[in-house]
Every structure is written in C-alpha cells, then in structure tokens.
C-alpha cells in the first residue's frame, strides 16, 4: 500500500516538476522508489521486526527523497514553494519517528502535541501545495506567453528579413532603372541639343541665302554705276583732249559722275547695313535686352526671308506688304533672338504661299504681310499670309517640340517651338496663331515695351 502511494507521489512529482527534462538521473532513480519498501518487508520477515516502525521508516525515506528532489530543483519557484509546504510535515514525522517506541507507538505525553502539530502541518502542506500549483499555472502561462512572443518575434524577424530582401531587390531594380533613365536622359539631351543646333543652322542657312541675294542688288548697282562712271571719265578725257572743248558737256559729265558716285555710296551703305545685320545675327546672343527698333527688324528679316526662298526657287515671286506704325517706341529685346523668331515666321509664311501657288490655283497671288502696332504698354507684330492655312487639329500642336507639317527633310519641328520659348520665356510676351484652312494664317507676337511692365 505504502509503495503504491510512493509511486503515485513520484508520478505526480515528475509531472509537476518536469523531472525528465530538469533532473533526468533523479527521474530514473525515482523509478525504484518501491525498492526500500521491498527491503523493509524482507527485514520484517527475516528479523521479525515490528512492521509499523518499518512502515514509518519507509514513509520518512519517501519524504526525505521528495525533499531532496525539491532541493535539487530549488531554482524553480514552485519547487521552493513545495519545499516550504513539506518542511513542517517532514519535521513532524521526523520528530514522531524519533520519539516512537520500538513498537511504533508514541508516549502519551507527546501524542496530543504531535497530533496537533501534524494537523497544522497537513493544513500547511495542503495550503502551500495549492499555492505552488497556482504558481506553476501562472509560470506556465508566462512561459506560453513568452513562447508566443518569441514565436511572434521570430515571425516578425522573418518577415522583416523578407521585407529587407524585397526592398533590397526593389532598390537594386530601381537603381538600375534610374541609371537607364539617366543614360536615356543624357542621350535625349544630346539629341535635343543637336536638333536645336540643326534648327539654328537651318535658320542661319536661310538667312545667309537671303543675305546673299539681298546684297546682290546693291552690289549690282555699285558695279553698274562704277562702269558707267568709268565710261563718263573716258568721255570727259576725250573731250578735254580736243582742240575745241565744250564746257557745257564737261559740266554735264561731271554732274553725272557726281550723281553716280552718290548712288554708289548709297548702295554701298545698303550692302554694309546688310553685312552688319548678318554679323549681328550670327554673333552669339549675350542675353542682354537693348532698345530695339521693331519696324527696322521686321523689314530687314522680311526681305531676307523672301530672298532666301528665291535663292532656292528663282521662279517664285510674292507680294510683300508692310504696315509699320511710324511712332512705334523702341522695345527692350534681344535683337538676334527676336530676329530668329521673325525669320522663322516669315520663312513659314513664304513656304505656305509657295505651296498654295504650286497647286496651280487660278488668279492666286502669293502675299505676305507684316504689321506693327502699339497697344497700351505692348507692341504687336502681325505676320499674315494667304497660304494654305492650318487645320484646327494641327493648330493645337503647332508649338509642340518636333511637330511639323512639312515633309521629311524640310523641317525639324523645332522652329515654332523655339520661337514660342524665345517670345514667352525670353521676352515675357505671347505668341498666338489664327488661321482658316485654305485662306490665311496670321501669327501675333505681343511684347512688353519694357521688361516687367
């Protein structure tokens, strides 16, 4: 009976203290808790010893074994609580065993005291055993909570590691894409710069052709009047060499030579003015605004654009109409840049009327007109042609970069875009267009007379 109780106590103790994990050797040894009882039974049978005293001895052995196990796992708080619960009962049983007679009975003077203390020890044992059990449950909950927290922590760490990996991959991909975009942007800027330069060179080519044909007229006059003057001088020398000289004829020849020289001077000044304009146009812009005569600028570039197209097609002729306001104030502008804008508008106008002329329309007379007016603190420049006109769908895109209605090889689509930027950004003005397909196109440039006004 006692052996069975001891085995049950050991089983409960193993489970309560988790002895297989905490004390594997003790756990194995406790499997033989019944062995002392067998030994005591054999001693009782062989030596005829009182069985009651031997039973108390076995009980003490079991209790001291349990106490030794609890001491061994004293770092575990429920074990310390059980040891505290067992101490009074173990002390009572030890004293009782020591005071018992050989037959296992207690002297009467100690019987009542030990019974009373035993009752107290049992109550103490039960109370602190319950406390130890509740403490174990609390610790178990804490352990489970810690395990959940550790599990959650490991899960979070795993997720963080995965996120870091994904972020690293995404960062690497974005970095690679950024490098590709930077490379593409660099190539695009290079191409754009080349196209802008190509547009400027095309504009310069048209201007140069116009200048060459425009300067040809005064040079022809200079050459013709110089030849005539040489002939008159020859005739004058012949007259002076005659025995009978005619003073009237000599005076007339001298007057004609003087007039020719004045005309040579006039046309020489005209050629010099054209050359000066060419040099100003080809010179790199400083970006400084200076008072500019818009009438003179518009007249100069109108004729240069016309002569530039005639250099390509000598059969082309058009009517040029200018309506310049006589009292137009000077405008603070960058002359070469504004000249490029006017040259582009005039060139487009002549191109439009030429294309309409090529259609063979009966009675059609190509006409390009320029008008200047002052409107308050603004100066307006209108460039109008009676060419093919611009369709509504095209009109919405006409100032976009690289958009052109000209055939491939005849335009880059940057002329009007650059002109729009020069007027709006470079001069704080506006550039608009009105057109009716098959009838006319009119560009309107509006510039402030003074910057900031």
What can you tell me about this protein's structure?
Keywords: Coiled coil, Kinase, Membrane, Phosphoprotein, Transferase, Transmembrane, Transmembrane helix. Residues 210-451 form the Histidine kinase domain. Its EC number is 2.7.13.3. This is histidine kinase. The protein is of the alpha+beta class and 453 residues long. The chain folds into two domains: 2-157, no CATH class; 289-453, 2-Layer Sandwich (Heat Shock Protein 90). Helix content is 69%, strand content 10%. It contains twelve helices and seven strands. The chain has helices spanning 2-17, 19-22, 24-30, 35-47, 51-72, 77-99, 108-241, 247-282, 294-312, 335-358, 392-395, 415-426; strands at residues 290-292, 319-323, 331-333, 367-375, 378-385, 430-436, 440-448. It has a five-stranded mixed sheet with strand order 2-4-5-7-6. Strands 1-3 form a two-stranded antiparallel ribbon. β4 and β5 (378-385) form a beta hairpin.
Oligomer: single chain
Sheet with the most strands, sense and barrel status: 5 strands, mixed
Q: Within the largest sheet, what's the order of strands? A: 2-4-5-7-6
Number of domains: 2
CATH topology name of the largest domain, in short, is Heat Shock Protein 90
What's the total count of β strands? 7
User: Which consecutive residue ranges, at least 5 long each, have pLDDT under 50?
Assistant: none
With helices defined by DSSP (H or I, 4 residues minimum), what is the helix count? Answer: 12
The string of secondary-structure elements, in order, is: HHHHHHHHEHEEHEEHHEE
CATH superfamily of the largest domain: Histidine kinase-like ATPase, C-terminal domain
Which shape, going by the Cα principal axes? rod-shaped
